């Protein structure tokens, strides 16, 4: 890695959820699937995907399994949350980075899960909430869902919704679309006097 390298980490998590609005006592969402796309200097450098074993509420609810299309056996065979934090730290150490998520829930749950597990928060760079940027950029009243935002660009999301790695790649794709629009709409620099005046025409005029 060179000193000037910068990494964008496009991140998506899926979480446990209660069976209904009445949460069990002490319930909080735990990460059960992680998807990450590492992009360095505009090129996809690496990707990471894994199921994660929940600790505090290890048995998935029927609602959770149905909504996320995740089986109990998949999370039972997943890595531990401690291993997940280790992997995220490894990506963070590669070079200066910016973590990009669609919405702020991923980072909130990650922070809370780290506190519960008495583990350090793995990221040292800044965080960008792309959903909020999209909302502000297009003047939306409500926050738009990831897949709907992509469709509004006339595109389709990668793979399946609520698959962490597919959603991470979809976040990466819409990030590129929004950044391209921002550059297009950016106020151009003031032209120089040489750009504003056609000197060839001016010389012809004085030559007459």
TrEMBL record:
SMART domains assigned to the protein according to its UniProt record, in alphabetical order: EXOIII
Domain Exonuclease: 7-184
Keyword Nuclease among record annotations: yes
Record's keyword terms, sorted: Exonuclease, Hydrolase, Nuclease
UniProt signal peptide: none
Pfam family, one: RNase_T
Molecular-function GO term, any one: exonuclease activity
PANTHER family given in the database record: 3'-5' EXONUCLEASE ERI1-RELATED (PTHR23044), 3'-5' EXORIBONUCLEASE 1-RELATED (PTHR23044:SF61)
Protein name (database record): 3'-5' exonuclease KapD
Source species: Anoxybacteroides rupiense
């Amino acid at each position: 890695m060179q000193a000037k390298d910068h990494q964008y980490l496009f991140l998506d998590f899926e979480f446990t959820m209660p069976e209904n609005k009445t949460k069990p006592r002490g319930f909080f969402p735990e990460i059960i699937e992680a998807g990450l796309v590492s992009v360095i200097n505009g090129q996809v450098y690496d990707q990471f995907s894994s199921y994660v074993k929940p600790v505090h509420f290890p048995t998935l609810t029927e609602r959770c399994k149905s909504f996320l299309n995740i089986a109990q056996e998949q999370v039972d065979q997943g890595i531990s949350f401690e291993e997940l934090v280790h992997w995220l730290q490894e990506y963070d150490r590669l070079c200066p980075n910016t973590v990009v998520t669609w919405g702020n829930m991923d980072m909130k749950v990650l922070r809370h899960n780290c506190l519960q597990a008495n583990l350090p928060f793995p990221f040292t760079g800044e965080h960008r909430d792309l959903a909020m940027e999209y909302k502000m950029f297009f003047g939306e009243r409500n926050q738009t869902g990831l897949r709907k935002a992509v469709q509004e660009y006339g595109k389709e999301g990668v793979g399946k919704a609520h698959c962490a790695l597919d959603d991470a790649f979809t976040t990466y794709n819409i990030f590129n679309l929004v950044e391209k629009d921002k550059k297009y709409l950016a106020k151009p620099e003031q032209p120089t006097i040489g750009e504003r005046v056609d000197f060839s025409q001016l010389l012809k005029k004085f030559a007459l």
